[in-house]
User: What shape does this take?
Amino acid sequence: MTQPLFTSELDLLETLVPLPGTSLVEAGCGAAALARELLDRHRTAELVGLEVDDRQLDKNLQQPAERLRFERAGAQDIPFADASFDGALMLKSLHHVPMDLMDAALTELARVLRPGGWLYVSEPVFAGDLNELIRLFNDEQIVRTAAQAALDRAIASERWSSEADLHFETPVHFTSFEDFEQRMMRPTFADHGIDDAMIERVRAKYQPHQRADGASFTRPMHVRLLRKAG
Assistant: This one.
């Protein structure tokens, strides 16, 4: 079944939760692209981005923005008091939390949210042409399955209730294989052990997707919106 396509995931988020005037935290914010877009659209919102990758954190700190601040912290150990935020975001980041800390991360996010606060978790689905390329050097099936299981356990604990469970697709474009290699094979937060043989293996599978203007994919995504009890 064809899923709805969102060029900006913020368009989807806005249909699920109110954002004006909110205090938000994003765990595993990466380059904070959606956070910056959100704050640009919603001038009364504020957001704290948590990141454990020192190189990415340094880049973020060199690009300050109003109502946006950054902290070096993981989702399992958030340096804020109880009930500090209205909402929380995890965008393609829960599966990067060590599997034995996923439950702790979701418990910690509940702690820093106000009663009735929401948690928006967006995770890539282990399917599709782009996934088939990435799994050649970074097979995430186990950790993505673990992330969904951790969400199931969080809801079963009655600490959270489930408010939405839906799927969508988002476009991903690469100008060239070199662009793909830099963005997907050599991220700042992970070492995939890339060697020349792996480069050529992935290039051969990538090349049929390349057109004059680059290679375009759609990435299937799974969103779950949880609400803190109370």
In short: The domain at 9-125+140-170+221-228 is CATH 3.40.50.150 (Rossmann fold). DSSP finds eight helices and seven strands in the chain. The chain has a mean pLDDT of 97. The first strand starts at residue 23 and ends at 27.
